[in-house]
Amino acid sequence: MLSYLHGFHAGNHADVFKHSVLTLLLQALTVKPKPLTYLETHAGAGVYDLHSAQAHKTGEFGAGIGRLWAQRAEFPELSAYFSAIAALNPAGGFARYPGSPQLARYGLRDADHLILMELHPTEAQKLRHTLGGDARIHIHQRDGFEGLPALLPPTPPRGLVLIDPPYEVKNDVRQVVTAVIAAHQRWAGGCYVIWYPRLAVQRDQSAQLLKELARYFPEFLIAELWTRLPADEFGMHGSGLAFINPPWQFAAQLQLLLPRLAAALAVTPEKLPNGGWSVKTVTK
């Protein structure tokens, strides 16, 4: 699917949730001195201009990073996330917003490697322009679902995979599950993170995705954050992350962060189930 451009949605509540959690995950994985590999299947452009016509057409960043940035002093555990944004904006603010590849680039060390896949030619070109000068980074213009198992196991042989397609194609759920299973068969020790949107009941495929994952994986962790109740057929009211092989005690970190993050991003968190967040382990 080559019509999706993340510039319309960069910095929204789903990005803030995903990137906050990614920051904690990278910190947990880099505690050990051994180098690691970061892989991403749908890398996008790497950095987004929130002053662009795309971003202002939706204005979604206002209810995402716009809201959290004003409260950043209350989230010391996300200092690396805010520092990555500040590094792109030396004059202040958050107009240049980092996608997950840029956050990984900022958070990883000299001996670590990044493998980024992006199929859209315009986005891949922007990604090369933004991150291509870093010797640690390998950029592939290819289908991430196909490319992920083909590039495994990586060197170094420990690390993290982020899978976050736009889910605009009906069979994206099936492709996610197929790619994760194929990847896990080649690299069972990797940490896999799968992002998914939470949509109105008529369009939401999250239950199907999690059910399919549970058929293959005996245990995995789920974290979700919602900013409002489902209100219409097309809106995204929240998003989720499924973790296969998360770091030790990572669930406890999420349970400390997500209640406060939901309170910061939701308009009326008191009206949402459990205040707008959930962390649970799925087991067979």
Automatic annotation (TrEMBL):
A GO molecular function assigned to this protein is: 23S rRNA (adenine(2030)-N(6))-methyltransferase activity
Binding of S-adenosyl-L-methionine occurs at 19, 42, 100, 118, 143-144, 164
InterPro entries in UniProt: RlmJ, SAM-dependent_MTases_sf
GO BP terms = rRNA base methylation
| Site (Interaction with substrate rRNA) location in chain | 4
Active site at 164
Organism superkingdom: Bacteria
- Transmembrane segment boundaries: none
Q: Which transformation does this protein catalyse, written as a reaction?
A: adenosine(2030) in 23S rRNA + S-adenosyl-L-methionine = N(6)-methyladenosine(2030) in 23S rRNA + S-adenosyl-L-homocysteine + H(+)
Q: What sort of enzyme, by top EC class, is this? A: transferase
Q: What is its EC number?
A: 2.1.1.266
tRNA processing keyword on record: no
Which Gene3D superfamilies does this entry report, sorted A to Z? Vaccinia Virus protein VP39
Q: Which GO terms describe its cellular component?
A: cytosol
Classification via Pfam families:
RsmJ
**Keywords from the UniProt entry:** Methyltransferase, RNA-binding, rRNA processing, S-adenosyl-L-methionine, Transferase
Q: How does it assemble?
A: Monomer.
Function of this protein?
Specifically methylates the adenine in position 2030 of 23S rRNA.
Similarity comment text for this entry:
Belongs to the RlmJ family.
This protein is called what? Ribosomal RNA large subunit methyltransferase J
Which source organism does the UniProt entry give? Chromatium okenii
